[in-house]
Structures are given as C-alpha cells and as structure tokens.
Amino acid sequence: MSEKIYDLKLRTKAFALSVIEMYAALPERNAVAQVLGKQVLRSATSVGANYREAFRARSKAEFISKIGDSLNEIEETDYWLELLVDSRCVTNSQMAPVLGEAKELVAILASISKTAKWNGGK
Q: Percentage of residues in the chain with pLDDT exceeding 70?
C-alpha cells in the first residue's frame, strides 16, 4: 500500500474523530446545534468509510464512484460546518481547524476524482 493512500486513510479517520469530539462539545439544550451537529457527524464519518471502500472497488468505474461519494460527503460536511458557524452555534475560531481540514480534504478528494476520471474514464 502506498504511503500517501495510508496517510489519507488515517487523515480521514482523524478528521472524523475531530468532528465526533466537536459534536460531543455542542450544547445539548440548543436544538439547532444538535440538528446541525448530527448532520455533520453523519457526513464527516462517511468520508473515510467511502474512501476506504474505493480501495475495495472491483472496477475503475466503482473506484471513481466511491471517490465521488467521499467527495460529496466532505463537501456536505463543509456545508454543515459553515452553518454551525453562521448560525452562531459555535464561533469561527472554535471551528477554524475543522473547517480548514474539511476544505483541504475537499481539494485532495477533488484532485483524486479528477485524476481517476482522466486516467480511467467512466
């Protein structure tokens, strides 16, 4: 297994764990924070799961599809994180590290998706 692939597996898992930690710290009595937090939790934990599934793909088309699913989930996660900040459930400074990592993962997964499509086609 390539070191870069392994690193991204660890990185997506670490990202999910940081979101789990963030969710656990949200105020329990704030309904908006809880609803948005659950959305973030679902999408953020799916990023790495879909990324790992891509490497069990039986074809290039299936690989491209699973990488696309991972990209969709990280983009959705980014959206929910932005809503948590914009709705004032959390401060921008509290969310900055998680938001920064989400944006970096979007860029990485978009690049992988584009390269896979370019090299493999559908």
A: 93
pLDDT in tens, 78-108: 999 999 999 999 999 999 999 999 999 999 9
**Pairwise CA distance, residues 110 & 75, whole Å:** 10
Report domain extents, the chain. 3-120
Query: What CATH number belongs to 3-120?
Result: 1.20.1440.60
- Whether the full predicted model's pTM is greater than 0.85, yes or no, is yes
Q: Which of 20, 27, 63, 61 is nearest to 43 (CA)?
A: 20
Judge contact between 78 and 67, C-beta under 8 A. Answer: no
Token pair listed for 78:
């980014």
Torsional class of 27: left (φ above 0), alpha (ψ -120 to 50), beta (otherwise): beta
Pair of tokens at residue 6: 């392994």
